[in-house]
Amino acid sequence: MTTRDELLIHLEEAAGNWVSSKSLGDILGVSRSTVLGHISRLKKDSYPIEYIPHKGYALRETSDLLVPRRIREGLETKAFGKKEILYFTEIDSTNLKAKGLAASGAPEGTIVISERQTKGRGRKTRGWFSPPRDGIYLSLILRPNIAPRSAPSMTLLTAVAIAETLLAVPGLEIAIKWPNDILARGRKLAGILTEMSTIGERIDYAVVGLGLNVNTSRFPDEIEDRATSILIETGQRVRRVTLAKEYLKWHEEYYDVFQRIGFEPIRKRWKELTNMMGQQVTVETIGREYTGKVQDIDDGGALILRDETGGYHRVIFGDVTLR
Ligand code: BTN
After folding, report:
1. Which distant-in-sequence residues (6+ apart) come within 8 Å of 287 by Cβ?
2. How confident is the model at residue 241 (pLDDT cuts 50, 70, 90)?
3. What is the best residue among 193, 207, 214 to mutate for testing ligand 1's pocket, by most ligand atoms within 8 Å of CB?
4. The whole model's pTM is what?
């Protein structure tokens, strides 16, 4: 963790109390002028830090930072977010970090979260627009006891958890699009990047990365007509901390169902939350394209299409275009 992140977490943990630059320096083992340098940069990046002479610095309690203390406060989960939450003001990609941690043995339920990503990653070689403090960029480490062929089910389960979270936001209408999108009015509101590592015929770990556009007011020109945020859809800013906690709760709930009963209840809910059933679609996969009507998703989360000759196709990944 960088000194800047440690400093921010320390201010946050002081819970609105004033901390002097001297004591911050002592705690972090750096000089007072280093502390002042970091504070000035954080303020420049619009972190709500206040100063009173002779008292010191405090982070405004209403700030909507995704720091561990805020996430843990009233978090209704058993494991997700109850162990380690790694927090960053800036990182290349939370998925990359989480994969490194998982490979060195981090337990299920470990979370990596950042206020900003400099190399946010999407599916294939795409990026993920990750402006500071506007969205939720969160990766969760899972160790599901499933075969690699069932990996898409982890993405679908995540999509259901996000959809349940978003259904509680007033004025927001959403639909799931296979395999990893949550759409509002046909535009992308959230994306999921599931990456995994296998040992023989089993999954060693899966990292499920969520990118959710919450309070983003503008997107770059290249994606402006394809992307949206809760703010753009509803005209309201929403507290990211609340959404992140709700999402973790839903995700854990469905993950428990998955482990106790299996994929079937999730599959059923997924079908209620998508607008793809019965739709004519084209799916582009590596070197092949399938066109047909969406018939179903199977017990591994694959998309089942029926083409015009009556033939069935099972597709495990690809880009879908609704016709
Ligand atoms: C997609 O729709 O292509 C998937 C987007 C996933 C973005 C999230 S943001 C948090 C996590 N870290 C990353 O680098 N990517 C995922």
Report:
1. none
2. very high
3. 193
4. 0.94
